[in-house]
Design a protein that fits this description.
Blueprint (H helix, E strand, L loop, with lengths): L5 E3 L4 H18 L2 E15 L1 E13 L7 E11 L5 E6 L1
Antiparallel strand pairs: 1-2, 2-3, 3-4, 4-5
């Protein structure tokens, strides 16, 4: 579908960069340490730039917790035409 999402290789360097960027931004927002466990699925959408939708498993460790909490997250990262990344959503 023109303008729609298409599956992407989870091992793609751009997908990994988008996942790492999303984790860094979300960690800062939450004030918690978030680490990537695995990327389960990735999709890309060509817009005026590129959207990367990354479904991943992460460990979230808050300062008050003794151990990390394993969670699934879906992040959308936008890369504009100047290669600047921004986190559009995290669910």
């Amino acid at each position: 579908v023109a303008g729609g999402y298409a599956d992407a290789d989870t091992a793609d360097a751009n997908v990994a960069a988008a996942a790492n960027f999303a984790i860094k931004k979300r960690s800062k927002t939450l004030g918690a340490g978030i680490s990537l466990v695995s990327i389960a699925k990735a999709r890309m959408q060509v817009v005026a730039g590129m959207n990367y939708e990354v479904c991943m498993e992460v460990d979230v460790k808050r300062k008050t917790d003794k151990k990390a909490d394993r969670q699934f997250a879906r992040a959308v990262v936008y890369r504009n035409l100047k290669n600047k990344l921004s986190l559009t959503s995290w669910t």
